Amino acid sequence: MNTAIKAARRGGDLAVRQLNRVHELKVENKGVNDFVTRVDRAAEEKIIETIREYYPNHAFLAEESGVTGDSDHVWIIDPLDGTTNFIHGVPVFAVSIALRIKGR
Q: Looking at domain 2-101, which CATH architecture does it have?
């Protein structure tokens, strides 16, 4: 649990620091009402990097990068849950992290 909290804080801190510069971001449209920015990707990288410090053999299912690794332990990550709010400068968003162990 502490690892997930540490990873979420690192990813979230990165997003919060960019909130006042949101007007400078290039927004990509992945689908209907589904957006991504470099902040989403950078936060995801920071989260995965943090978790790998403690669990280098675990796998990841992340919103931006997809599936990496093969393990019974899979970290499921949405690095910027609420990208639509974020790109409009609304400070209501979250980092979502879960750990699935052996399919549960």
A: 2-Layer Sandwich (3.30)
